[in-house]
Amino acid sequence: SQKIEQNSEALNIQEGKTATLTCNYTNYSPAYLQWYRQDPGRGPVFLLLIRENEKEKRKERLKVTFDTTLKQSLFHITASQPADSATYLCALDNQAGTALIFGKGTTLSVSS
Amino acid sequence: KAGVTQTPRYLIKTRGQQVTLSCSPISGHRSVSWYQQTPGQGLQFLFEYFSETQRNKGNFPGRFSGRQFSNSRSEMNVSTLELGDSALYLCASSLTDRSNEQYFGPGTRLTVT
C-alpha cells in the first residue's frame, strides 16, 4: 500500500534562513501533491498544489518541487519568520484515486 | 466570502451515544470532504460528497456515516461512540473535488468519555 512520509517531526531554524521540508511517497506516482499549513487548534490551510507535469511552483516566499523519479516533494520557505512557525502537511491521492492521504506533518519552529 | 463553518466546535459525549456534526461549505463549493485527526494517526479521510452523492469513503467502520444536502451543507454521524472516536473532525470544501485546493473548517473537537 502507498505510504507518505515527512522527513522529520520537528525542524528548528533561525529567522531569515530557508526552511526545507521533505515529503516522500512510495509505491506509485500520484497525479498531484498538495501542501497545507496547520496551526494548533485550527484546520489546515491550503498553500500550494503541484501536478505531476510541473517540476516547481512558487508563491511569494514558498517554493515546492515535485520529483516523480525520486518520489519526493520539497517545500521551501525562504527568509523564514517566526510567524511561519506551524505544522506543515503534505497530501496526495491514494493509488485508487479514492482518498486524499496526509503525511503526519513536520512542525517548523522559527526563532528570532 | 465566508469560510467553512462547523458546528458545534466542542462536544463531550458518553460511550455508546451517537453524535451529529454539521459543516457548511464555502458558497459555490459543491464538494465536501470529512477527515478525522488524532495525534497518533494524523489526518485520515472519512468520506467525500459531491452534489448530494457520496463519491468516496475511507477505511472507517459503518458507524461513521454522512450525507450532503441540496445546498451542499453536510452532516456526519457517528453511532455507538467509542473512546477511540475522540478526535478533531474536520470538514473541507472545494469547488469540484479534492484534486483542487481544499478549504478546511475549524473542526469539531469530540471527546468521548
Strand content of chain A: over 45%
How many β-strand runs of chain B? 11
Fraction of residues of chain A in helices? under 10%
Instruction: Please write the string of helix (H) and strand (E) elements of chain A.
Output: EEEEEEEEEEE
Task: Give unreliable regions of chain A as ranges.
Answer: none
H/E element order of chain B: EEEEEEEEEEE
Content-based structural category of chain A? mainly beta
Radius of gyration of chain A (CA) equals 13 Å
Kindly state the mean pLDDT of chain B as a whole number?
94
The Cα radius of gyration of chain B reads: 13 Å
C-alpha geometry of chain B: globular
- The percent range for strand residues of chain B is over 45%
Report the end-to-end length of chain A measured between terminal Cα atoms.
41 Å
Tally the helices of chain B: 0
Topology:
The complex is a heterodimer of chains A (112) and B (113).
Chain A: E1 4-6, E2 10-14, E3 19-25, E4 32-38, E5 45-51, E6 56-59, E7 62-67, E8 72-77, E9 86-93, E10 100-102, E11 106-111
Parallel strand pairs in A: 2-11
Antiparallel strand pairs in A: 1-3, 3-8, 4-5, 4-9, 6-7, 7-8, 9-10, 9-11
Chain B: E1 5-7, E2 10-13, E3 19-24, E4 31-38, E5 42-50, E6 53-57, E7 64-68, E8 74-78, E9 87-94, E10 103-104, E11 108-112
Parallel strand pairs in B: 2-11
Antiparallel strand pairs in B: 1-3, 3-8, 4-5, 4-9, 5-6, 7-8, 9-10, 9-11
What do you see in this structure?
The complex is a heterodimer of chains A (112) and B (113). Chain A has strands spanning 4-6, 10-14, 19-25, 32-38, 45-51, 56-59, 62-67, 72-77, 86-93, 100-102, 106-111. With 112 residues, chain A is mainly β. In chain A, the strands form two sheets. In chain A, strands 2, 4, 5, 9, 10 and 11 form a six-stranded mixed sheet that branches. Chain A is globular. Chain A starts with a strand and ends with a strand. The model of chain A has no long low-confidence stretch (mean pLDDT 92). With 113 residues, chain B is mostly beta strands. Chain B is built from no helices and eleven strands. Chain B has strands spanning 5-7, 10-13, 19-24, 31-38, 42-50, 53-57, 64-68, 74-78, 87-94, 103-104, 108-112. In chain B, strands 2, 4, 5, 6, 9, 10 and 11 form a seven-stranded mixed sheet that branches. In chain B, a hairpin with a 3-residue loop joins strand 4 and strand 5. The radius of gyration of chain B is 13 Å and the shape is globular. The model of chain B has no long low-confidence stretch (mean pLDDT 94). Chains A and B meet through strand 4, strand 5, strand 9 and strand 10 of A and strand 5 and strand 10 of B.
